[in-house]
TrEMBL record:
Transmembrane domains' residue ranges: 12-30, 42-61, 115-140, 167-189, 210-232, 238-258
InterPro entries linked to this entry: NarG-like_sf
Highest taxon above the source species: Bacteria
Lineage of producing organism: Bacteria, Bacillati, Armatimonadota, Fimbriimonadia, Fimbriimonadales
UniProt source species: Fimbriimonas ginsengisoli Gsoil 348
Keywords: Membrane, Transmembrane, Transmembrane helix
Descriptive protein name: Major facilitator superfamily MFS_1
């Protein structure tokens, strides 16, 4: 199994990121009918998505080209694509997708409250993105049929009409409000944990934990302020609030490639790691040179040894010892050093 040369990773990442940005620009141009349906007040949002696409793809390609990640990546695809078990692997992948991405059960194992807060933030963000991106790119537009109904158009093609005061109308016009409430609920639960849970306080950082929550909260609150302005205050201060909301959204999008929110794009790759672990668990085991006992999968041992060599570390036969035997050797060598008796095992 080959691993890409690390010195060329920046070139690959830059090329891939540039291509992603160009594709987003092309999608905006084509989807908006050569910009005829593009809403210029939303230009800042559209521009931010272009820069975010560049940053996200650049970081993702840099991350995936790291020798350990790339080895996992390639091995996972090979395991899934095996002809004899391909159908079974596809169904297993769908099950893992539902369990780990849709239902996020791995977080439920850490606490129901934590799971509920994370679900609110995750699905609130996805709902907001699903609404905001097509609108800011000019893909979705609304028209009027002349008899009191709104018409939804996608890329210039009529989809359906709905009365403004119907349930569909309520959901259409308040989708971002619903997402904002979900996100604020999730942020409140997360902040409560970070303020009162000593374990969370011990490992949290401003950059990775607090700033993402602050950005999500800012986008949601300013969005709700826009709704309050035109529904409750007759449009008072709407221009200022729209600029403030746009600013928070742009900062959030530009921050995504650099902060903890990047894990949203890393998480799907973890599904393949599950295949790797299951294959290793069912396959042959590596045996310790000293004790003769199995201590990990042979596949993982061999891949780890190869990756260590690729990044400039070769521990020789020491790599063929179990963690328990390595700890024993450390204790024996420390005891020998204290007693001035050299020992090597």
């Amino acid at each position: 199994m080959s691993v890409r040369a690390y010195p060329h990773s920046q070139v690959v990442a830059f090329a891939g990121a540039t291509l992603a940005a160009v594709l987003v620009i092309g999608a905006i141009y084509v989807g908006s009918g050569s910009l005829t349906r593009f809403d210029t007040p939303l230009a800042a949002y559209a521009a931010a998505t272009i820069f975010a696409a560049f940053g996200l793809v650049y970081r993702y390609l840099m991350w995936v080209q790291r020798p350990p990640t790339w080895r996992y990546f390639v091995a996972s695809f090979r395991l899934i694509a095996r002809p004899k078990s391909f159908v079974k692997s596809v169904f297993h992948l769908i099950a893992l997708l539902f369990k780990n991405i849709v239902a996020q059960k791995f977080i439920a194992n850490r606490g129901k409250g934590r799971w509920f807060g994370h679900m609110c933030m995750a699905w609130g963000c996805l709902l907001a993105f699903a609404i905001t991106f097509p609108l800011s790119w000019g893909w979705v537009s609304f028209g009027h049929d002349g008899v009191g109904n709104y018409i939804v158009e996608f890329m210039g093609m009529r989809q359906f009409a709905f009365p403004p005061h119907s349930i569909i109308g309520f959901l259409m016009f308040n989708g971002l409000v619903i997402s904002a409430v979900m996100i604020i609920t999730g942020v409140a639960i997360a902040m409560h944990r970070r303020l009162f849970d000593h374990g969370a306080q011990a490992v949290q950082s401003l950059e990775n934990d607090l700033i993402p929550l602050f950005l999500l909260f800012s986008v949601s609150v300013t969005g709700l302020m826009l709704t309050a302005s035109y529904k409750l205050m007759g449009g008072e201060h709407f221009s200022f609030l729209s600029l403030l909301h746009a600013f928070t959204v742009v900062v959030l999008l530009l921050w995504m490639p650099f902060g903890k929110l990047f894990h949203v794009f890393q998480r799907p790759a973890q599904l393949g790691v599950q295949f790797y672990k299951e294959e290793g668990a069912n396959g042959p085991k590596a045996l310790c040179l000293r004790s003769g006992q199995p201590y990990q999968s042979e596949m993982h041992h061999d891949d780890l040894a190869q990756v260590m060599k690729e990044i400039g570390f070769d521990f020789g036969e020491h790599q063929n010892l179990s963690p328990e035997e390595k700890r024993k050797l450390i204790a024996l060598n420390q005891a020998a050093a204290l007693g001035e008796v050299p020992y090597a095992g």
